[in-house]
């Protein structure tokens, strides 16, 4: 194993430098990081290889394009966390040369077990797994400055650069609060009760599993979901719910909270910038066990109605502003957030990769993730991305349900051949 730091070229574009206080949801993730790890990752399976030096240069080009890749998080005189541009902040790249059957998931597990030092930065790490004829590119990020879609676009940008194309620089992305016309965090007085920072972060050891669904089954699921007046996401939520109840006995009859992250880029009119642009929405399931598969899928879809709107994003951001803004008492905020994120299941679906997967000599075969510990450890976090017509699933958990992903593929295969009124 080799560890590289990208040879640094100074960024002289002052307009491309990010310096501002955190928005409410960004600050929430910074606060959550004091409690438990919420770092996350995507993995790209790529046909073809390039020299390490080419990848180094491509990652540096992507860093110069995205202002949030050259920041650390510091506290100002009012105890407000803020993004601060750092000129010489090389992104670490870990390189492994392995055989073709090497299990890349173990490297994601290692990355998710290592915490970012936010006060130093950078807030991204890269793992480059080189096989004889293919490459796996793993991006691990801090959630205060990025989301799954950001990492997907970053994969595209790195592949664009490594295939010899230039990347134009982007302007710093404002917080979602600013995009909505909301004021920044205002502290009128310092609290007498100050939070004592510690380096003794909780150790985590998540397990990561993955599976790729073939194109035929993926196409059948898309068509059947449309026929049943639901969505692929609704069908996948139903699949995970039904199987989790069957495979984890203590969940068989309990009220289940299922979280779905919702991309906020479209309602806020945002571009491909690297930043945190999501909301999350909970749907609760109780007493649905005798319903058919497709009725549960429609319940899941209906539970997310109205979430892809500016009004929803504004209400969501205002909720976290009420928790995280206008106070210097960081410990009080942390105490409130300790009781949050108690869900059993998260289904985080980035949808289809909508950019070309051809990059000169390289082809992006599949993308996996997002992979993240989303709750307290027993939750099942199902990541979903569709690339080249095939669904890719991951399950990230400290306590994964054994065989869940394989049974998901079997259940959706059966469900696509099942009448709407049949319980699967």
From TrEMBL:
InterPro entries: Alcohol_O-acetyltransferase, CAT-like_dom_sf, Condensation_dom. It holds the Pfam family Condensation. Signal peptide: none annotated. Residues 55-169 form the Condensation domain. Coiled coil: none annotated. It comes from the Bacteria. This is Condensation domain-containing protein. It comes from Mucilaginibacter defluvii.
């Amino acid at each position: 194993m080799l560890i590289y730091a990208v040879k640094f070229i100074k960024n002289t574009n002052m307009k491309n430098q990010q310096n501002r206080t955190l928005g409410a949801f960004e600050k929430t993730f910074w606060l959550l990081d004091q409690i438990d790890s919420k770092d996350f990752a995507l993995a790209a399976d790529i046909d073809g290889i390039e020299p390490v030096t080419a990848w180094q240069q491509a990652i540096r080009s992507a860093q110069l394009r995205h202002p949030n890749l050259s920041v650390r998080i510091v506290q100002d005189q009012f105890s407000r966390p803020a993004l601060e541009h750092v000129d010489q902040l090389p992104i670490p790249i870990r390189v492994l040369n392995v055989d073709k059957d090497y299990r890349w998931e173990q490297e994601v597990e290692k990355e998710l077990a290592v915490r970012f030092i936010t006060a130093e930065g950078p807030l991204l790490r890269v793992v480059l797994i080189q096989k004889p004829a293919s490459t796996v590119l793993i991006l691990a990020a801090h959630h205060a400055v990025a989301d799954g879609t950001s990492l997907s676009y970053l994969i595209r940008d790195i592949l664009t650069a490594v295939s010899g194309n230039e990347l134009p620089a982007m302007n710093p992305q404002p917080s979602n609060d600013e995009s909505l016309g909301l004021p920044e965090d205002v502290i009128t007085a310092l609290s007498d009760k100050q939070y004592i920072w510690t380096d003794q972060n909780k150790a985590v050891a998540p397990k990561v599993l993955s599976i790729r669904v073939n194109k035929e089954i993926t196409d059948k699921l898309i068509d059947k979901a449309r026929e049943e007046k639901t969505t692929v996401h609704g069908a996948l939520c139903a699949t995970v719910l039904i199987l989790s109840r069957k495979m984890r006995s203590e969940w068989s009859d309990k009220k289940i909270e299922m979280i779905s992250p919702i991309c906020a880029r479209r309602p806020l009119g945002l571009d491909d910038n690297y930043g945190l642009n999501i909301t999350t929405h909970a749907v609760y399931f109780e007493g649905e066990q005798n319903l058919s598969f497709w009725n549960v899928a429609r319940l899941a879809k209906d539970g997310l109605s109205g979430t892809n709107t500016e009004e929803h994003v504004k209400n969501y951001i205002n909720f976290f502003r009420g928790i995280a803004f206008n106070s210097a008492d960081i410990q009080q905020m942390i105490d409130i957030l300790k009781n949050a994120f108690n869900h059993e299941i998260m289904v985080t679906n980035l949808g289809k990769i909508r950019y070309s997967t051809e990059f000169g000599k390289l082809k992006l075969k599949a993308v996996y993730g997002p992979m993240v510990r989303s709750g307290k450890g027993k939750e099942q976090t199902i990541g979903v991305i569709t690339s080249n017509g095939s669904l890719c699933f991951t399950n990230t958990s400290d306590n994964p349900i054994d065989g869940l992903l394989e049974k998901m593929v079997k259940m959706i295969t059966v469900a696509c051949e099942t009448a709407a009124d049949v319980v699967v």
